[in-house]
Amino acid sequence: MKSKVKEYRQELGLTQSQLGEMAGVARQTINSLENGKYNPSLILAYKITVLLGLENIHDLFEFEEEDLED
User: Fold this and answer.
1) Which of 66, 55, 3 is nearest to 31 (CA)?
2) Which of 10, 19, 47, 65 is least surrounded, with the fewest CB atoms within 10 Å of its CB?
3) What is d(CA 62, CA 24) in angstroms, rounded to the nearest whole number?
4) pTM
């Protein structure tokens, strides 16, 4: 899954730690999201979307073909 978390977080002047605290997760979770190493739950994805001032999850997260395979 591709993520634009870093882009939007930096636009707002937030650190990973600050966003993590606001979202109720560790800084490492935000780092993993930004690096595509972690797929968030729907609730966490929505929470971060709202915290970053966006309306739609798909504005922040983009599924890739391999994400849909199983």
Assistant:
1) 3
2) 65
3) 22
4) 0.88
